[in-house]
Amino acid sequence: MTGEVNMKAHSSFLLRAFLLSLSLIPALGLAQELSPINLPAPQTDGGKPLMQVLKDRHSTREFSSEKLSPQMLSELLWAAFGINRPDTGKRTAPSAMNWQEIEIYVALAEGLYVYDAKGNKLNPILAQDVRGAAGVQAFVKDAPLNLIYVADLSRTGNASAEDRNFYTAADVGFIAENVYLFCASEGLNVVVRGGVDRVTLTKLMKLRPDQKILLAQTVGHPKR
Ligand SMILES: Cc1cc2nc3c(=O)[nH]c(=O)nc-3n(C[C@H](O)[C@H](O)[C@H](O)COP(=O)(O)O)c2cc1C
């Protein structure tokens, strides 16, 4: 009798554990299906002269669907906000109080990742093509790369709301300009965009309340 009761309790425990594991699948998203992408080491000694790059910097809204190579992606992200002083962990763009609060989400056809500057890799977020939701203009969904700049407000200390808004907006501007300059140097097309449906994208990206989408930036090869 006791054995039978134990068996029942055991099966009911297994059933509950199974149902719980099923209920966790949506919460975990599909990121499990994506693996981290280890980027090749960026080549940091090339590029056009600065004055030439400044002459060439401009926005373009036409992109080939050709993917960027892992090498190009590595260099672009390093230029954007990589670590240029490994002894201190400081970056290619300045940030107020050295908050380093801007996270670069990387929307590729195969899924959404976040740039890990220290590990020089892309960490998976969602195995879903979110490019279509990364902007409100037609070219956004077909371009091979959309960067989505998110401020992690948990890194902004005790700053007032006004200072937070001001400094995070300034900080993202430096990063976006670095991307513009890299693209001018490499002959890539690029446009920074404030036109983003932040409410929809925030939900899709499963961001926390203290993560705020600031801008997006579309990058790709010119159309041939
Ligand atoms: C904060 C900011 C938001 C922008 N938002 C958009 C946008 O949503 N869509 C777009 O096509 N261009 C956008 N742009 C690009 C500007 O339209 C562009 O920089 C401007 O027309 C000047 O052109 P140039 O970059 O070639 O000098 C934005 C630029 C900035 C700085």
The CATH class of the largest domain: Alpha Beta
Q: What is the distance, rounded to the nearest whole angstrom, between the alpha carbons of the first and last residues?
A: 78 Å
Strand tally is: 9
Q: Could you say which overall geometry the principal axes of the C-alpha atoms support?
A: globular
Radius of gyration: 21 Å
Helix content: 25-40%
Bound molecules: flavin mononucleotide
Low-pLDDT stretches: 18-29
Question: What labels describe this entry?
Answer:
single chain; 224 residues; NADH Oxidase; 2 domains; seven-stranded antiparallel β-sheet; two-stranded antiparallel ribbon; globular; binds flavin mononucleotide
Folded structure, characterized:
There is one protein chain. This protein is of the alpha+beta class and 224 residues long. The protein is globular, with a radius of gyration of 21 Å. It contains five helices and nine strands, in the order H-E-H-H-E-E-E-E-E-E-H-E-H-E. Strand 4 (102-108) and strand 5 (111-116) form a beta hairpin. Residues 18-29 have low confidence and may be disordered. Helix 2 packs across helix 4 (161-186) and helix 3 (70-81) crosses helix 4. Helices cover 35% and strands 22% of the residues. The chain has helices spanning 2-28, 50-56, 70-81, 161-186, 198-204, and strands at 37-38, 83-85, 90-91, 102-108, 111-116, 121-126, 145-152, 189-193, 211-220. It folds into two domains: 1-32; 37-220, NADH Oxidase (3-Layer(aba) Sandwich), CATH 3.40.109.10. The structure holds flavin mononucleotide.
